[in-house]
Amino acid sequence: MKAYSQGVAIIGSGAAVPSQTLTNEELSKIVDTSDDWITSRTGIQTRNLANETESLSQIAAQAAEQALTMAGITAAEVDLIILATSTPDDLFGSACQIQNLIGAKKAVAFDVTAACSGFIFGLITASQFIRTGVYQNILVIGGDILSRWVDWGDRTTCILFGDGAGAVVLQAQTDRDNLLGFEMCSDGTQNGCLNLGFDGKNQYLNSELAVTKGSYQPITMNGKEVYRFAVAKVPEIIEKALYRANLSTDDIDWLLLHQANQRILDAVAKRLKIPPEKVLANLNKYGNTSAASIPIALDEAVREGKIKAGDIIAASGFGAGLTWGAAVFRWK
Question: Other CB atoms closer than 10 Å to residue 126's CB: what's the count?
Fold first, then answer.
């Protein structure tokens, strides 16, 4: 590994989900599906959905405050907030709203958008600010409210998604670097496989001058292509990150994947020859929460006592863009 002026450690985690839940049985009354059909194909049984009084900024702030409490630092000590999201409350960004809600007065705050890879991309981005000595304490939050953009008449997509937020605190370390290896990739040639696209029409300001007015359309997805992409690319990028860390799959204590589909989790673990008992999964309770899925699953495993200090975690996010990334880190 390169020598950096400072190392990185993840010293706290937190998570929050909206109050409403939607079970498969309830969903089957909205769209032509069933609990058996959804569970057998995805592993999802329930998901949480935000109502009109719950904003992404509020849910993300709750997750951030939990992470700060675990880390033992105050919001006033945070230097930077990175929010990974594709569904901000404000199209100009929501990180600054979170900064205000938690009282992180000195923190710089900005959003990054990389869909379901967003948290991993945000984590890697944050680590560079610490390694170069610029910042000491950074909040990385992954959060999405995808229920805003789901077509609830499309059973191929509406069964998949839930809302939520997860957060971690990164802190500078002088004695060791706990971010052991990482890798990021993008492939715009496959952009059409998963979209939340803008649909607009010309509005003429005069006889010659036109501007485009419209709105974003519901999520569309080619499930088969996304599955093929994930099963092929995710094991590969995890192995690359492990190579950079000078580790092998035998050194992994936990495999933490974006919680997209149980079949993908099983297939990736099988290709990496990682036993099921080392795979962290909670999508049965929350569904696919996009950028929030990895930090929510991480926080749950930490609070349940599964993940312990010194454990090595290989995490990978993958999704729209298409984008995918992996980070190998030691907990605390």
Answer: 25
What is the per-residue pLDDT across 138-154, written as a single tens digit (0 to 9) for each? Answer: 999 999 999 999 999 99
| Same-domain check for residues 28 and 130 | yes
Catalytic residue among 116, 158, 193, 261: 116
Report d(CA 207, CA 203) in Å as an integer: 10
Q: Are 166 and 70 in contact (CB under 8 A)?
A: no
Sign for the pseudo-dihedral over CA of 223, 293, 116, 143: positive
What does pTM read for this prediction?
A: 0.95
Domain with 56, as residue range(s), is 7-177
Which residues are 110's β-sheet partners? 82
**Nearest one of 331, 268, 319, 322 to 291, comparing CA atoms:** 319
Identify the active-site residue in 24, 178, 261, 288: 288
CATH code: domain of residue 80: 3.40.47.10
- Among this protein's residues, is 258 annotated catalytic? yes
* Confidence category of residue 2, pLDDT binned at 50, 70, 90: low
CB-facing half-sphere around the CA of 84: CA atoms within 13 A: 29
- Residue of 48, 258, 261, 282 marked active site: 258
| Res 268: pLDDT | 98
Asked if 284 is an active-site residue, the reply is no
Asked if the model's pLDDT at residue 331 lies above 70, the reply is: yes
Is 193 catalytic? The answer is no
